[in-house]
Design a protein that fits this description.
- The protein is an alpha/beta fold.
- The chain has helices at about 1-5, 15-20, 25-40, 80-95, 110-125, 140-150, 165-170, 180-190, 210-220, 250-265, 275-280, 285-290, 305-310, 350-360, and strands at about 45-50, 50-55, 100-105, 130-135, 155, 195-200, 200, 225, 230, 270-275, 295-300, 335, 340.
- It is built from 14 helices and 13 strands.
- The site of 5'-deoxyadenosine (5AD) has 11 residues, from loops.
């Protein structure tokens, strides 16, 4: 049965539901297939993005997130521009070839200008060779365009869930947290010419397996170039924590997350898929497993240790991990799990270029 589905080129929602439910030997078949597709379409490599979480100041109040504005126990930081540039220099010298700048969501002219200036400095520091991914939330189209003109080439904005009903349960009902606006922002990013990434959380309270099948179809329909998705992890100081009893056990949530990655790889063969940090919170080597079944991007955290402890989106967020994470240590590893690391390669998503070819 599953072998028949795996042979297909187009997948119905019913097919995806079946794949999301596979167990035992069928699960091994699913993972073998997704790994085969990964090797064929994006190569047996994992590309690095040096992740800089440069500010945990956020104006939003998502019910699931530990750094939401109303959480007063968070000590807020804003890494100084010079310190960010020192990290960029580190990444450049250590062959990362690509960076991800991430922050809480702040939409105002000062922030827009700050990021624009940073991008210009990063471009000149690296002779315009570092592929910069931004993940700074919802902004006006004009701001996205300015950041693009200043050198950013990729943008990650997770839709969190493709179901407007579920989105409403996870966010306050106000204009700051509008599903429609988020979707609008994604469309703007794509039309400006960014390699556009999105993603969802997996195993949320109130989330059904149908929601997850719809998430996969959403990403396919939207024709995204990159995806960062991972398990939902509870944070005690958030409103969603009271639904702990609705959560799947860690092991099941992890399995579901790995299935989502494998199925997305089969559905969208040539996109970039990240093996996310949240996976590691559920199991120490889950990120290795993810790159062995379809993911091809890893985002080692290169934010200095002093700030790292305060970027707690969720509990059990790893503080240090890989040998090569952290500014203090040089990269020595050649492989991540069993997958070779693509040092010095910025690892653009082939889908972005294939998409452009077919749309001409
Ligand atoms: N568990 C897992 N992921 C989370 N994020 C925020 N809070 C959590 C949580 N509790 C993710 C969201 C957001 C990204 C910055 O972090 O998907 O887009
Ligand atoms: Fe802010 Fe993002 Fe957390 Fe929402 S998920 S509170 S926007 S950092």
């Amino acid at each position: 049965m599953i072998t028949e589905i795996l042979q297909k080129d187009e997948f119905t929602k019913a097919d995806l539901l079946q794949l999301l439910k596979v167990e035992g030997q069928d699960l091994d078949l699913l993972f073998a297939k997704s790994n085969e597709i990964k090797k064929k379409y994006v190569g047996n490599k994992v590309y690095l993005r040096g992740l800089i979480e440069f500010s945990n100041v956020c104006l939003k109040n998502c019910y699931y997130c530990g750094i939401r504005q109303s959480n007063e126990s968070v000590s807020r930081f804003n890494v100084k521009d010079d310190d960010i540039l020192a990290m960029v220099q580190f990444a450049y010298e250590n062959n990362y070839a690509s960076l991800a700048l991430q922050s809480g969501e702040i939409e105002n002219p000062t922030f827009a200008l700050r990021v624009e200036n940073l991008l210009k400095k990063i471009s000149s520091l690296s002779n315009n060779t570092l592929g910069v991914t931004l993940s700074c939330g919802e902004q006006s189209k004009e701001t996205y365009q300015r950041w693009f003109d200043a050198g950013a080439r990729r943008y990650l904005l997770r839709i969190e869930t493709s179901s407007p009903e579920l989105y409403q349960k996870l966010h306050p009902s106000d204009t700051l947290h509008s599903f429609t606006r988020r979707l609008e922002c994604l469309k703007n990013l794509q039309s400006i010419g960014y390699q556009t990434g999105t993603g969802v959380m997996i195993g949320l309270p109130f989330q059904s397996i149908e929601n997850l099948a719809d998430d996969l179809l959403f990403m396919k329909r939207f024709d995204i170039d990159m995806c960062g998705m991972g398990p939902y992890i509870l944070h005690r100081e958030t409103p969603l924590a009271k639904y702990e009893n609705l959560l799947l056990p860690d092991k099941e949530r992890l399995k579901l997350s790995l299935k989502m990655i494998a199925i997305l790889r089969i559905l969208m063969k040539d996109i970039n898929i990240a093996s996310t940090t949240a996976l590691q919170s559920l199991c120490v080597d889950a990120r290795e497993k993810a790159v062995e079944i379809g993911a091809n991007v890893l985002m080692p955290n290169i934010t200095p240790g002093t700030y790292r402890n305060d970027y707690n989106l969720y509990e059990r967020k790893p503080k240090t991990s890989l040998q090569f994470e952290g500014k203090e240590e040089k990269i020595t590893t050649q492989k991540f799990g069993t997958v070779p690391i693509g040092y010095g390669q910025c690892g653009d998503a082939p889908h972005f270029f294939n998409r452009k070819k077919t749309s001409v």
